[in-house]
């Protein structure tokens, strides 16, 4: 067959074009050897944990690199590289092979631990449109070279904060310089990056016209939110939580017609929140929680609302949940409006919210009855506690709708008035992981607790539960049975149920019998509180030597006897040891010195007989030391070196047999009592131990102290509360001047000792002092006028000493009654109704006190001459007992007329002689 010339020309042209296209494609492909070699070089340069790697460990020579895990290609060039979550800890530097893979468009190194600065060579990857370095362990300043990646569409440097880890910084370059040329950016994630400054709105709005996602949480930003942000009409996600905005929320946020997520929690917002923002049709998530100064109320929600998550907890919202409005949120799955000021009934229309998963209405003022949430089949958390529900004020019964919530994970009905028994159907909710029924009036429960095999948190404290010990599933991590009426013994096999338990409290019940040794088998136990029961027997030795997890052991106020087992392990983990109020004797356990993290030690009200426990002197974490009412004896304090008790804030060694002088040098190591207002230790906090870290579950230490003459229980021990109680011992000598250095001291009790000398004026330095008791000593001299500086002093007891002179006429001391000064024969002043210049009462005043009395020497000289001469005349009668007594008495009265102050000293001596004679008889 003959082919026309035109046809041949056409075929030649087609072949030429196809050949040209083929040549073009081949010429644009990357050399496969080069790309594979670079990837293998990158793998070899990186330090990573192969046991946790799912990508790098599979990269092998000889296979098609474009199909390696984490790698994607375009025309043979590596275009996407995802090495996220590969446990990489190093090996990325400016000379690495990564920056020779110049065709990469998408790079993800998130969730690693490089622990280095971001390399500056990123500007070589000019084709990058997606860069994710979030939570990769990078630190320090973000390099200026990032600003050269002008094709970037998504930039993510977000980082979770970890203690002692320096955050990423945007200082030089600052935010304005970094974003100046990134006009294509659609998503910006800088969460956790320290961006500083108040000009962030202008920097973003002037450079990023296409921005849709703005995520700058925890960036140290300040307010206000500038109106220039209004230009970003495409914004759909705004996350600015955990900043210091101190500003109002602008109403123009309601103009963002694509807004889906608005998160502004914990940002110091104030003013009134614009209702229009709630009504944006596309809005799915709004979080305003933690803004205590932010006021507002809920609007009428439109029927086409998209809202899925509503978080207002801790904000100052009030008013009612509008009945016809809240029911329109058909997609609502999570609602947390706890700790607000909402009032009125919970709308019945909420029964139509079938998608509800999380419901927290606690700590409001809702009243009336509880709606039936039976349509919400997927509820996992319900918290209705601390409201005014039902006509009587609070819930009295378990809401019936709970019976069918088979997927319920968390149930909190605490702080209501639910009475009677816990219904059996509750134990059929097999998905329950957290159950809180505390602060009710429940009286009984049955053993079906064991049916809740998924239960991890069980809190039944502060009820009226009675009967036998209720066993719980071995899955329980937190078990709170305290403040009930259980009255049986603790099961001997209790250890079998503590396989995962961290917190176990049976305090304030009537449990009796011994402490089972099986408790020692609990492998993870951190807090064991058996206080305020009727337990007897001895402390199991294994409990003291339990593995290095037990941090709190509280056995106070039981009937335990024996001794403290001297079995504390070398790596002792105790932070709190409270054995107060038992019948424990013996010596102080020497191995307790192994507990180098000890913060609270309370051995008060026992029968321990030993010297002062100097073996604890190097435990620098010690905050509370109570040895009260034991049989300790000997000198207080320790010889050099004095140790380091820099955090000590409460010392109570009252009612023992300590003697000798109070060593002032020992007090100078108590730095927590010496701090000024500006010191970090002055921050208001209280002693507590974090049990479930990251969940806010704490064990709070408590202690009984004698303050202002009264015994009181400190349910929370504030870190700023400082107290010294040395009362009821045999201390002698003077009050050391060093006490005046304890500037943060609140309470000082040195009463009922044998202290002498004057009250040191240095005590006036204790400007925080609220209570001082120096009664029942032998203190002399005058009351320091400097006490007028103690403006916080509300309790003062100087009674039964040997003080003299006039009580200082100050506004502060004039507020105290006569009881503060009685028993000091040489004192005068308006508090005692004794006028210091009244002749009939001036015999009680020292001559050097400024109130002198004239002596009638004429009369006295006659009396002396007569008495002296008469004594010589009847010298032969000296052996006559009757005459000798008369002579002694006459001379004694004459001397008192001359030196009235002798009455105090001689009188005391005579009383002691008289007492000794009575004992001899």
TrEMBL record:
Subcellular location: Cell membrane
Presence of keyword Cell cycle: no
Keyword set, alphabetical order: Cell membrane, Glycoprotein, Leucine-rich repeat, Membrane, Receptor, Repeat, Signal, Transmembrane, Transmembrane helix
GO CC terms in record: plasma membrane
Topology versus the membrane: Single-pass type I membrane protein
Xref: InterPro entries: Leu-rich_rpt (IPR001611), Leu-rich_rpt_typical-subtyp (IPR003591), LRR_dom_sf (IPR032675), LRR_N_plant-typ (IPR013210), RLP23-like (IPR046956)
Superkingdom of source: Eukaryota
Signal peptide (from-to): 1-19
Pfam families, per database record: LRR_1, LRR_8, LRRNT_2
Residue span, Leucine-rich repeat-containing N-terminal plant-type domain: 33-73
Keyword Glycoprotein attributed: yes
Transmembrane segments: 857-880
Main location: membrane
Similarity section: Belongs to the RLP family.
UniProt name for this protein: Receptor-like protein 12
Organism field: Prunus avium (Cherry)
Lineage: Eukaryota, Viridiplantae, Streptophyta, Embryophyta, Tracheophyta
Gene name, Swiss-Prot/TrEMBL: LOC110762166
């Amino acid at each position: 067959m003959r082919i026309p010339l035109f046809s041949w020309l056409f075929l030649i042209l087609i072949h030429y074009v196809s050949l040209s296209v083929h040549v073009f494609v081949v010429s644009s492909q990357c050399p496969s050897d080069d790309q594979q070699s670079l990837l293998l070089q990158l793998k070899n340069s990186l330090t990573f944990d192969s046991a946790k790697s799912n990508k790098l460990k599979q990269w092998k020579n000889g296979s098609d690199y474009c199909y390696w895990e984490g790698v994607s290609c375009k025309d043979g060039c590596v275009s996407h590289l995802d090495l996220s979550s590969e446990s990489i800890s190093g090996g990325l530097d400016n000379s690495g092979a990564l920056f020779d893979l110049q065709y990469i468009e998408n790079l993800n190194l998130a969730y690693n631990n490089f622990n280095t600065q971001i390399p500056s060579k990123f500007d070589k990857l000019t084709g990058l449109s997606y860069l994710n370095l979030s939570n990769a362990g990078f630190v320090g300043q973000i390099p200026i070279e990032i600003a050269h990646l002008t094709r970037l569409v998504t930039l993510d440097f977000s980082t979770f904060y970890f203690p002692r880890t320096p955050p990423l910084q945007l200082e030089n370059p600052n935010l304005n310089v970094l974003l100046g040329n990134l006009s294509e950016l659609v998503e910006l994630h800088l969460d956790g990056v320290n961006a500083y400054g108040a000009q962030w709105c202008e920097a973003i709005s002037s450079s990023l016209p296409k921005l849709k996602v703005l995520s700058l949480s925890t960036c140290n930003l300040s307010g206000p939110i500038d109106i220039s942000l209004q230009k970003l009409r495409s914004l759909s996600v705004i996350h600015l939580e955990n900043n210091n905005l101190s500003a109002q929320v602008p109403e123009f946020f309601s103009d963002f017609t694509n807004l889906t997520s608005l998160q502004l929690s914990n940002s110091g917002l104030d003013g009134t929140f614009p209702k229009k923002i709630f009504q944006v049709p596309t809005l799915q998530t709004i979080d305003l929680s933690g803004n205590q100064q932010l006021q507002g109320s809920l609007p009428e929600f439109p029927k086409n609302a998209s809202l899925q998550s509503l978080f207002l907890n801790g904000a100052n919202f009030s008013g009612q949940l509008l009945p016809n409005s809240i029911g329109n949120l058909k997609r609502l799955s999570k609602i947390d409006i706890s700790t607000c000021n909402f009032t009125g009934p919970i709308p019945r229309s909420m029964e139509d919210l079938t998608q509800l998963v999380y419901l927290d209405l606690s700590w409001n003022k809702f009243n009336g009855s509880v709606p039936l949430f039976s349509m919400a089949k997927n509820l996992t958390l319900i918290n209705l506690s601390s409201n005014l529900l039902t006509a009587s004020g609070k819930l009295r019964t378990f809401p019936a709708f709970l019976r069918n919530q088979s997927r319920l994970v968390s149930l909190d009905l605490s702080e209501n008035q639910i009475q009677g028994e816990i219904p059996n159907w509750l134990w059929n909710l097999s998905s329950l992981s957290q159950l809180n029924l505390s602060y009710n009036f429940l009286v009984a429960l049955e053993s079906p607790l064991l049916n809740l095999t998924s239960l991890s948190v069980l809190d039944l404290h502060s009820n009226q539960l009675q009967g036998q010990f209720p066993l719980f599933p071995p899955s329980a991590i937190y078990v709170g049975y305290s403040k009930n009426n259980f009255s049986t013994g603790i099961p001997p096999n209790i250890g079998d149920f503590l396989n995962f338990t961290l917190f176990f409290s049976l305090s304030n019940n009537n449990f009796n019998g011994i402490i089972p040794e099986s408790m020692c088998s609990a492998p993870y136990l951190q807090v064991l509180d058996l206080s305020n029961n009727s337990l007897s027997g001895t402390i199991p030795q294994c409990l003291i030597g339990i593995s290095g997890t037990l941090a709190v052991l509280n056995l106070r106020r039981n009937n335990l006897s024996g001794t403290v087992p001297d079995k504390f392990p070398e790596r002792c983990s105790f932070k709190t040891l409270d054995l107060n109020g038992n019948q424990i004797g013996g010596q102080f356990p020497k191995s307790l010195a192994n507990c180098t993290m000890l913060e609270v030690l309370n051995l008060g009200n026992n029968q321990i007989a030993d010297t002062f426990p100097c073996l604890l002197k190097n435990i620098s974490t010690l905050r509370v030391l109570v040895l009260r009412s034991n049989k300790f004896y000997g000198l207080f304090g320790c010889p050099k070196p004095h140790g380091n008790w820099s955090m000590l804030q409460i010392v109570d060694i009252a009612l023992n047999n300590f003697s000798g002088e109070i060593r002032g040098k020992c007090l100078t190591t108590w730095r927590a009592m010496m701090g000024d207002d500006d010191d970090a230790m002055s921050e208001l906090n209280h002693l507590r131990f974090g049990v479930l870290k990251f969940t806010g579950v704490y064990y709070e230490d408590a202690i009984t102290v004698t303050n202002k003459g009264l015994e009181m229980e400190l349910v929370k021990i504030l870190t700023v509360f400082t107290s010294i109680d040395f009362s009821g011992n045999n201390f002698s000598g003077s009050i050391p001047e060093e006490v005046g250095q304890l500037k943060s001291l609140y309470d000082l009790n040195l009463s009922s000792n044998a202290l002498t000398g004057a009250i040191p004026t240095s005590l006036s330095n204790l400007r925080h002092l609220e209570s001082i008791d120096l009664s029942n000593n032998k203190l002399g001299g005058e009351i320091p006028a400097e006490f007028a500086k103690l403006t916080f002093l509300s309790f003062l007891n100087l009674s039964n000493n040997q003080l003299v002179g006039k009580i200082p006429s100050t506004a502060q001391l004039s507020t105290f009654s006569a009881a503060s000064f009685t028993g000091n024969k040489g004192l005068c002043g308006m508090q005692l109704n004794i006028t210091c210049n009244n002749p009939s009462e001036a015999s009680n005043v020292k001559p050097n006190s400024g109130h002198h009395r004239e002596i009638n020497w004429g009369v006295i000289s006659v009396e002396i001459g007569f008495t002296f001469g008469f004594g010589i005349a009847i010298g032969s009668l000296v052996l006559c007992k009757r005459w000798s007594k008369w002579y002694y008495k006459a001379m004694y009265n004459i001397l008192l007329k001359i030196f009235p102050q002798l009455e105090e000293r001689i009188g005391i001596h005579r009383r002691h002689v008289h007492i000794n004679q009575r004992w001899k008889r």
